[in-house]
Design goal:
- By secondary structure, the chain is an alpha/beta fold.
- The protein has 5 helices and 7 strands, in the order E-H-E-H-E-E-E-H-E-H-E-H.
- The strands form 2 sheets. Strands 2-1-3-6-7 form a 5-stranded parallel β-sheet, sandwiched between helices. A two-stranded antiparallel sheet has the order 4-5.
- A hairpin with a 2-residue loop joins strand 4 and strand 5.
- It is globular, with a radius of gyration of 13 Å.
- Pfam families: Response_reg.
- InterPro entries: Bact_response_regulator, CheY-like_superfamily, Sig_transdc_resp-reg_receiver.
- This is Response regulator.
- Keywords: Phosphoprotein.
């Protein structure tokens, strides 16, 4: 079973996405704290859904740091944001994909399947 971690400080989005991914057969975990991602030592997810604007953290900084660490650089990161204007900066930070809020669950599932097949 593939593990997906959701990092978003919006509980409504986390709950909705968690329910859908669970229904699709993924093992899902979530955090509202960006520091949690940087402290990971074991139990890495197979894919990370990362919000760009999290309270106290810029998801792009977290993405850059994860892509620089040996044990997390291979984890596909799909960045999510309500602002379409920062898509380019998400890719510049090392994101593997980008999704603008609000998004269709089918679009999210398609991106997840694509990145999990590649890895």
């Amino acid at each position: 079973m593939k593990k997906i971690m959701i990092a978003d400080d919006d509980p409504g989005i986390v709950d909705a996405v968690e329910i859908m991914l669970d229904f699709e057969g993924y093992e899902v975990s979530s955090t509202v704290n960006g520091a949690t991602l940087l402290d990971m030592q074991t139990e890495f997810p197979d894919l990370l859904l990362l919000d760009i604007w999290m309270s106290g953290f810029d998801g792009r900084d977290i993405c850059r740091k994860l892509k620089q660490k040996k044990n997390t650089k291979g984890i596909p990161i799909i960045m999510i944001s309500a602002s379409r204007d920062i898509e380019r900066s998400a890719y510049e930070a090392g994101a593997d994909d980008f999704l603008a809020k609000p998004f269709e669950i089918t679009d999210l599932l398609g991106k997840i399947k694509k990145h999990l097949k590649e890895n």
